[in-house]
Design brief:
With 358 residues, this protein is α+β, with helices and mostly antiparallel strands. It folds into two domains: 171 residues, D-amino Acid Aminotransferase, Chain A, domain 1; 166 residues, D-amino Acid Aminotransferase, subunit A, domain 2 (D-amino Acid Aminotransferase, Chain A, domain 2, Alpha-Beta Barrel), CATH 3.20.10. Helix content is 23%, strand content 29%. The protein has seven helices and 19 strands. The strands form two sheets. Strands 1, 2, 3, 4, 5, 6, 7, 8, 9 and 19 form a ten-stranded mixed beta sheet that branches. Strand 17 and strand 18 form a beta hairpin. The longest helix is centred in the middle third of the chain and has 16 residues. The two termini are 12 Å apart.
Length: 358
């Protein structure tokens, strides 16, 4: 959907009287700590979405019996807007995030959000808070749409009331260094038939304890494996993952248990467009063990909205830690990042029409 496709707004706008922008130190942005002036809120009740509103970012008040607190009906998305080379602002592939959000809603028994209202709200918020979009390298305006059950009721069933919200926050790099990753062979992120392909809040809650255990062992994140056998690699922490094996970029295929990441899909499409061979397939732990021993595993990196391309320096394999080659020798991960950044920041041709100027 393009901005010219809508003529009237389906929600109200109440701009803040005084911006908090002047108090922000854009040279020292901690990820997810600073929030922009406005947020969007729209409620669902009586079988329909009510009229929403963009107003000032701030606290909300809810009942202790709110169903999301008890039964976990909560989903979210992560997306970004970028300062362009010409000084403008553009969102990166917002339509894909909207589609995935509604996929998550359906999987969690929640009402889908009308795509046109979702898109309108994103555009109008970015117009109001365009000054919050940073322009430093590796920085962006992170956009967090989310929805949760709001009905006051104690009893296991889908809620009949929900709240959909969007807020934004200026961010710098998610990781400031390469990460050490432990291959997890006991705990599970997602199982077939479960909610692993949705961005459900509970998926992330379940990952926290094993991640903290890994950190106590000296790692930064977990490389998740399949729930049934713990032999196939799935995701890296909260990101998709990619490897360079025998000179090819290899990415675990998406499934019920592997989130269909938009950064992942964009990276795959861009690399193929530029003549790089990419395989989307099953990757096993044993393959990584063998390839590392034989020198055929030369790069490993996470792919996600928050981190974009996050190099992995060490893999905690079942037979011991294995350090990847010096990043100065890497070719694929730097190319992925350069191609993605070129499109997102407007310094390269947007061959696929992914950027939506605001």
């Amino acid at each position: 959907m393009l901005m010219e496709d809508y003529k009237t707004l389906d929600f109200d706008i109440s701009p803040v009287g005084m911006s908090r922008l002047e108090g922000v130190d854009f040279s020292n942005l901690a990820f997810g700590k600073v929030f922009s002036d406005h947020m969007f809120v729209m409620d669902y009740a009586d079988g329909e979405w009510k009229r929403g509103e963009i107003s000032s970012y701030g606290p909300m008040t809810f009942s202790p019996a709110m169903m999301s607190l008890h039964y976990g009906q909560a989903i979210f998305e992560g997306m970004k807007a970028f300062r362009q080379q010409d000084g403008g602002v553009a969102m990166f592939r917002p339509g894909e995030n909207i589609k995935r959000f509604n996929f998550s809603a359906k999987r969690m028994g929640m009402p889908e959000v009308p795509e046109d209202i979702f898109f309108q709200a994103l555009v109008e918020m970015l117009k109001l808070d365009s000054g919050w979009v940073p322009n430093a390298p590796d920085s962006a305006l992170y956009i967090r749409p989310f929805m949760f059950a709001t009905e006051s009721h104690v009893g296991v069933r889908p809620s009949q009331e929900y709240r959909f919200c969007i807020f934004t926050c200026p961010v710098g790099a998610y990781y400031t260094k390469a990460v050490k990753v432990k291959v997890e062979l006991h705990y599970t992120r997602a199982a077939m038939g479960g909610t692993g392909a949705a961005k459900a809040a509970g998926n992330y809650a379940g990952s926290l304890f094993p991640t903290e255990l890994a950190k106590s062992e000296g790692y930064d994140q977990i490389l998740w494996t399949d729930a049934a056998t713990h032999t196939a690699v799935e995701e890296c922490g909260t990101m998709n993952v990619a490897f360079v094996l025998n000179g090819k970029m290899v990415v675990p295929q998406t499934s019920d248990t592997v989130l269909a990441g938009i950064t992942r899909a964009s990276a795959v499409q861009l690399m193929r467009h530029h003549g790089v061979e990419v395989e989307e397939r099953k990757v096993t732990v044993q393959e990584l063990i063998d390839a590392s021993a034989e020198g055929r595993l030369t790069e490993a990196f996470g792919l996600g909205t928050a981190a974009t391309v996050s190099p992995i320096c060490t893999l905690g394999l079942p037979n011991g830690d294995w350090d990847l080659p010096e990043m100065s020798t890497w070719e694929v991960a730097p190319k992925v990042k350069a191609l993605l950044d070129g499109v997102r920041y407007g310094t390269a041709e947007d061959s696929f029409g992914w950027n939506i100027p605001v």
